[in-house]
Write a structure and sequence with these properties.
- Helix 10 crosses helix 12.
- The protein has 2 domains: about 80 residues, Endonuclease Iii, domain 2 (Orthogonal Bundle); about 100 residues, Hypothetical protein, domain 2 (Endonuclease III, domain 1, Orthogonal Bundle).
- It starts with 13 loop residues before the first helix and ends in a 25-residue tail after the last helix.
- By secondary structure, the protein is mainly α.
- The longest helix has 18 residues.
- It has 12 helices and no strands.
Length: about 250
């Protein structure tokens, strides 16, 4: 009888097998990160009680003399630091602290005062335009509604919220880059947009804290919950924070 020989099964080269395994792994849907557990009402209350105890009367760091100069300072602060804005406005507001005085100064001279601030040409144009509109439509006064403030050149929702809160004592939540980071990182009010974070914070923060809430969160983000190298070891709310990478 003839001897039957069977061909040995060819095995795939190790490198090829590794490549195929890697390709298969990549094709699998990535696991979604688990959503942090929402804060309880008691935890939110505790967090803001600590902020209040540590700093009962927080103040915004933009220097101003009245609602108009506050509005101008906030418009100038877009993509700029408060310190940089203050350096320019200290001298500016000595000569132009009302819409009419700003128009008398004129755009060209205004540019000279704010030349050290980023986008100063566009901002100078906006400040002159909003001053004209305040005189033309609001009797030279800064209006008291969000929609009216947002109608002014160079003013958006964040600007309106800052002015309404600081000038008129409204319970608004201005979301800048610091508040946006704190809301998301801590899990207090996660959101993909500043508006989502704003509405989320307004929903969970008790009314008794809302007058100063945005200042506490801004200062917390600016000096403790830093974008790089957050100082978790000195954070007032590190035991409540939901951030999985916190260092305490």
């Amino acid at each position: 009888m003839a001897k039957i020989t069977r061909k040995a099964k060819k095995t795939k080269p190790a490198k090829k097998a590794d490549k195929e395994a890697t390709k298969a792994a990549k094709s699998r849907p990535a696991k979604k990160a688990a959503k942090p557990k929402p804060w309880t009402e008691a935890e939110v209350y505790e967090a803001f009680s600590r902020f209040r105890k540590a700093n009962p009367e927080p103040r915004g760091e933009l220097e101003h003399l009245n609602p108009y100069t506050l509005l101008v300072a906030v418009v100038l602060s877009a993509q700029a630091t408060d310190a940089g804005v203050n350096k320019a406005t200290r001298v500016l507001f000595e000569v132009a602290d009302t819409p009419q005085k700003m128009l008398d100064l004129g755009e060209e001279k205004l540019r000279d005062y704010i030349r050290t601030i980023g986008l100063y040409r566009t901002k100078a144009r906006n400040v002159i335009a909003l001053s004209e509109k305040l005189l033309r439509e609001f009797g030279g006064e800064v209006p008291r509604t969000r929609a009216e403030i947002e109608s002014l050149p160079g003013a958006g929702r964040k600007t309106a919220n800052v002015v309404l809160n600081m000038a008129y004592g409204e319970h608004t939540m201005a979301v800048d880059t610091h508040v946006f980071r704190v809301g998301n990182r801590t899990g207090l009010a996660p959101g993909k947009t500043p508006l989502e974070v704003e509405l989320g914070l307004e929903k969970v923060i008790p009314s008794e804290f809302m007058l100063h809430a945005h200042h506490w969160l801004i200062l917390h983000g600016r000096y403790t919950c830093l974008a790089r190298g957050p100082r978790c070891e000195v954070c007032l709310i590190n035991d409540l924070c939901r951030w999985p990478e916190k260092t305490v």
